[in-house]
Amino acid sequence: MLNLPGGDSVMATQLTFQFDEGGSIPTSPLQYIIKPIPYKLAMDVVIEHHYLHRRSSCSYAFGIYTPSNLLLGVITYGSPVSRSLQKGICGNDEANNVIELTRLWVDDRAPKNIESFFIGRTLKMIPNEIIVSYAEIQQGHLGIIYQATNWIYTGLSDKHVIWFIDGVTSKHPRHIFDSYGGFKKAQLILGDRIQKQYRPRKHRYIFFQGNKKRKKELLAKLRYPILPYPKRQDV
Predict the structure, then answer these.
(1) Whole-number Cα distances in Å, 216 to 101, 210, 211, 213
(2) Superfamily of domain covering 13-158+201-227
């Protein structure tokens, strides 16, 4: 059983596959309710339904519900894995003001414009003024939802190495250093058991929120170039 906001408890399998009696699904975003949800509930849904099928950094999690309190989507925001990214967007003094939109999943049966509504409403529910998110090129994503909601496009993410041990588990560089004292020592100990791959680059989008003056200040601090939105023929 999972506990929902408001004290309701339902089976996890019921969260995304049951709708109002008679099968009706609201067609207007204004008919939906957005609530903070527990971390466990958010990760259960993300692991089952998001295309990456894995946990993410999560400081804030929200669910979008039908009027009858049935969950139809999940969005999570969390601290970026890379501290250099936090510092690199608008400088050291704004590093702690940066948060990443880490996961977004909405049931396909929801209205087409529900994602932009969901993002827009939840941005107002978090304290951070600088939000970064990525669109996976390998998945064929351009970030159309971010383009439609006026995010700033700043190009592609940097290349990063991912380490695999025994061809299964992806290891963060810090794990390799802590466990083996560095990459070279790990290779000496593990030999062919350890392999490295480069993480594919992604489209990077940034959003500033706050009053007009504050957004102007953040835009002036932005260290990345502002580039035209990518189109299908660009990838």
Answers:
(1) 22, 9, 9, 5
(2) Gcn5-related N-acetyltransferase (GNAT) (3.40.630.30)
